[in-house]
Design goal:
alpha/beta, Rossmann fold, 2 domains, 17% strand, disordered N terminus, EC 2.1.1.-, Class I SAM-dependent methyltransferase, transferase
Length: 368
């Protein structure tokens, strides 16, 4: 992209032509990356990326046949993947090939590194752009029901970041917790979504009793169906507003309470945390996963996916809270404010952990 940078002026000073050109080139990269994110989402949802990961070089017709898709659409998608440097193309044979080094970050066979799962957030958020623009002008928020596929994507996200690490990394954050679960304790997951993590725990620890709360009827229905499918008879899922936990919960009933990325988008996060504290036994533990970040914007400049997380916060987490006339805390409330809220809810001992494989989250271990 070219421009007559020497004529650019901004406010009371002229722009540096070289810096202006560099920034312009960066903005073009942003446009191309956004477009590729859309195509990666399509490739993930249609199974094209998985099909190509298992194939030798092939024509668009061969790839379409393997994936069971329309060839014309596959061919155009392959064009985007080729010019985007994701797929290799031989102009002589007209074959396309997904190198294994690329497939390792884009396919379901690599469940803990599948970036294509996260690419789905881009079209998901784009689908509510008109609503968000309206909110910028008039205030208010966009309710959960406007996000048609949110629980689908979050379930896949959780399936990568939480479920595979439960036994090896997450439970060991609390010394002795695995042994207590093996002996049998009562566990509550607040904001359980589709129940991927809770169903996994219920299967691992048949002597313990598990309850999952979520405000979404669809998510609870899906979680319960999965529990029945894998014969988990020690887990119960209920439609329940976490904001009512302090008033209508069971005081001291649970020895372990978990939240996986579920506090910051609540209508009243502090009320939810107080409900969790009230529901926790005096010797119990509250284990919270939440987004890794600072409560100060300038401290997040070097976050590897900072722009993505702030965008998700603006276009989902913050706005769904505001749609309930809530606080609108947002995903990037940050470590400092999270600790402040945990203390205000009645937790005296708060340990903050980071996992080597997880640059996206903090893990808080809170005790009364």
């Amino acid at each position: 992209m070219t421009r007559n940078a020497e004529t650019i002026a901004c406010a009371d000073h002229e722009a540096d032509p070289a810096l202006a050109e560099t920034f312009s080139e960066r903005m073009v990269e942003v446009l191309n990356s956004g477009a590729l994110a859309l195509m990666l989402s399509v490739g993930h949802r249609t199974g094209l990326l998985d099909a190509m990961a298992d194939m030798p070089p092939a024509t668009s017709a061969g790839i379409a046949e393997k994936a069971g898709l329309d060839e014309r659409y596959v061919r155009e998608w392959l064009g985007a993947m080729t010019v985007g440097g994701i797929v290799d193309h031989d102009p002589v044979t007209e074959d396309y090939y997904l190198p294994p080094e690329h497939a390792a970050s884009l396919c379901r066979k690599s469940p803990t590194d599948n970036i294509a799962v996260f690419a789905q957030y881009i079209p998901l958020l784009g689908s509510v752009e008109d609503d968000i623009v309206h909110c910028f002008r008039h205030g208010g928020g966009v309710p959960y029901e406007r996000f048609d596929r949110f629980h689908d994507v979050m379930a896949e996200d959780s399936g990568q970041s939480v479920v595979p690490a439960l036994e090896t990394h997450i439970l060991p954050l609390v010394p002795g917790l695995t042994e207590r679960l093996e002996q049998g304790i009562d566990v509550l997951d607040v904001g359980c979504g589709r129940g991927r993590a809770l169903n996994r725990l219920a299967r691992l620890f048949p002597r313990s009793r598990f309850t999952g709360y979520d405000i979404s009827e669809d998510a609870i229905r899906y979680a319960a169906q999965e529990a029945r499918a894998i014969s988990n008879d020690n887990v119960t899922f209920k439609v329940f507003d976490a904001g009512n936990l302090e008033r209508n919960g069971n005081p001291g009933a649970y020895e372990l309470i978990t939240t996986f990325d579920a506090v910051h988008d609540q209508k009243d996060p502090l009320t939810v945390l107080r409900g969790i504290r009230k529901s926790l036994a005096d010797e119990g533990v509250y284990l919270a996963q939440d987004i890794k970040g600072s409560s100060h914007h300038h401290s997040d400049r070097d976050h590897p996916i900072g722009p993505l997380l702030y965008t998700i916060s603006c276009m989902h987490c913050m706005t769904v809270s505001l749609a309930q006339d809530g606080e609108g805390l947002g995903a990037m409330w940050g470590r400092e404010k999270a600790v402040e809220y945990f203390k205000a809810a009645g937790f005296r001992n708060i340990d903050v952990h980071e996992l080597d494989h997880d640059f996206q989250n903090y893990w808080y271990v809170c005790r009364p």
